[in-house]
Specification:
alpha+beta
């Protein structure tokens, strides 16, 4: 599948460079691997969630004040 559009100076740009003048014909093709990327990100998220709640002995406000405990910034 292929979409053919014209750049009219509005909407989401296809790429940062090169800059195209208005009404320039462009072609955009969907990424055939886009579903694989989403699946990989989902699998990574599931793997990281397996570590949630595993840490022992942390202060009760660690999530809110992690900068304080890591870097010494004032508590919130």
């Amino acid at each position: 599948m292929e979409y053919v559009e014209r750049v009219e100076g509005r909407g989401k740009p296809l790429a940062k460079e090169p800059r195209l003048p208005g009404s320039t014909p462009v072609q955009a093709r969907p990424d055939p691997n886009r579903h694989k990327k989403k699946r990989a990100a989902s699998e990574l998220g599931e793997m990281l969630l397996s570590f949630a709640g595993k840490a022992k002995g942390l202060p009760g406000d660690m999530a809110e004040n992690h900068d304080h405990y890591l870097y010494g910034t004032p508590k919130k």
